[in-house]
Amino acid sequence: MFTRWAYDAGELDHDPGARLEAPKAPGRPPQPEVKDLSRSLAENRLTLAWSVPDGKGGYPSKTAGFFVYRSRQKLSGTDCRGCPVFFERIGEVSLNLTDAGGRGNPAVRYVDTLEKGYHYSYKVVGYSNDMVMGKGSNIVEFDY
User: Which sequence spans correspond to the domains of the chain?
Assistant: First the structure.
């Protein structure tokens, strides 16, 4: 059963059993994901490299930085290539895109020191100044 309420702006139908919800703020779009994560090795030093992705819909990227994640598993253990991979955050790269003049996609680099006898996996995740996180990048994997 509906009750008809009258207001100055007109009439409004109201279902007394309906549950009213507070309005929700519009969602923020996630940060664009990195799709070109690559690696290079020089002795026991790994260099990860990637470019800052373009923003959605042709807008400039609002990426403020990246978190770097690593997973490592001993090679001498059981071979578990199909098992879930658990990453831990090992670093952060903050950006200052004004240094790049706002043109192009600047290259970003991160250096890590490796220990022999492990299978390594790396990924990066972008974030904005208000900590809106992106999806994980492509994963770089190798044995060292």
Answer: 27-143
